[in-house]
Amino acid sequence: MKREEKQILLDELIELVNNYDYIYVVDISGLNSVDTFLLRSRCFKENIKLQVVKNTLLHKAMLSSNKDYSEMYPILNGPTAIMYGHTPNNAPAKLIKKFRENSDKPILKGAFIESVVFIGDNQLDTLATLKTREELIADVALALNNPFNKLLSSLQGQGQKIAGVLKTLAEKE
Fold it and tell me: What is the rounded CA–CA span in Å between residue 141 and residue 69?
């Protein structure tokens, strides 16, 4: 590969690591051509990009990034592919879990999700159940809204009791 081609790839990787909120680093080596095709097609359906990368170029891109990827440097060895996209941050983990029902690959090396680093394949279950930012905001809003709803319903209930008593009194007169 010529120096100019490497520089183009490096620039693309720098843009990628700067612009995406999550990046999963996986090992897909050992998958036969049929399984690789199936994995790529599932990624396409889920709007997840899968790209095989050179570790040295990814390392240089991470070094040049405006994010701190330093915890991920040790996992950049052996065959490496990255999964990224603008889908929910747990979509690749769910896809990997589902795909591994029929295969032992891909292996999760690590993930970078909104400045939090997860290292190792043992983090796959945690990542698959991870909530998105929007889901967390909805949970907080619901938790904050719940006491107000209880207060309003109790006030409405008391108001209905008072209205019932007044109605009964009016009917007796």
Answer: 32
Claim to verify: residue 119 and residue 142 sit in the same structural domain: no
Please give the model's pTM, rounded to 2 decimal places. Answer: 0.75
* Low-confidence spans in the chain with pLDDT less than 50: none
Phi and psi angles of residue 113, each rounded to the nearest 5 degrees, phi first: -125, 110
Whether the CB-CB separation of 119 and 110 falls below 8 Å is answered with yes
Taking the C-alpha atoms of residue 173 and residue 170, their distance in angstroms, rounded to an integer, is 5
Matching residue, tokens 């490096």: 10
Per-residue burial over 51-77, b = 16 or more CB atoms within 10 Å of its CB, e = otherwise: eebeeebbbbbbeebeeebeebeebbe
**Residue 162 confidence (pLDDT):** 67
> One-letter amino acid identity for 99?
F
Q: Reduced to 3 states, what is the DSSP secondary structure of residue 108?
A: strand
Q: How far apart are CA 30 and CA 100, in angstroms?
A: 13
Q: What's the structural domain count of the chain? A: 2
What is the domain range of residue 141? 131-173
Task: For 164, list phi and psi in degrees, rounded to 5.
Answer: -65, -45
Of 6, 145, 24, which Cα lies nearest the Cα of 96?
24
pLDDT at position 170: 73
